[in-house]
Design a protein that fits this description.
Structural class: alpha+beta
Order of helices and strands: EEEEEHH
Distance between the termini: 28 Å
Oligomer: single chain
Largest sheet: 5 strands, antiparallel
Strand content: 25-35%
Strand order of the largest sheet: 4-3-2-1-5
């Protein structure tokens, strides 16, 4: 479980969005980029075709349109991002403190993907 907090920094670890998401969002996070959390709330995600509850993050610098049917002016109406796409920055740095070439989040994400591909190949 990730420990996110409002005002905390996080790193995007998965920016592979399905193409339909582009119709709902104007700004998407980029893998390896550091963001500051401006709100944390209950959101929704899809597992296949089933809608399930998820922790949703709103990020400083990424502002998106309000969901259709949402109450105007409500802070809950802006679409957020599933927290599974992020890791707290301090956790990423702690996990990788001994791996010097992975000193920045972009390199950490790239290295992690390489390890996953090597594991799948074996």
């Amino acid at each position: 479980m990730n420990n996110f907090e409002i005002g905390g920094k996080c790193v995007c670890i998965n920016s592979d969005f399905p193409t339909w998401v582009l119709t709902l969002y104007t700004e998407l996070p980029k893998e390896g980029q550091i963001y500051v959390i401006r709100d944390i709330r209950l959101g929704a995600a899809f597992r296949g075709k089933q809608k399930v509850g998820a922790v949703s993050l709103l990020l400083i610098g990424l502002n998106n349109p309000h969901a259709e049917g949402a109450k105007a002016g409500s802070s809950l109406s802006e679409r957020g991002f599933n927290s599974d796409r992020f890791r707290p920055l301090d956790e990423v740095q702690e996990e990788n403190k001994d791996n010097k070439p992975e000193s920045n989040p972009t390199e950490i994400c790239h290295h992690r993907k390489q390890q996953e591909h090597e594991t799948e190949a074996n």
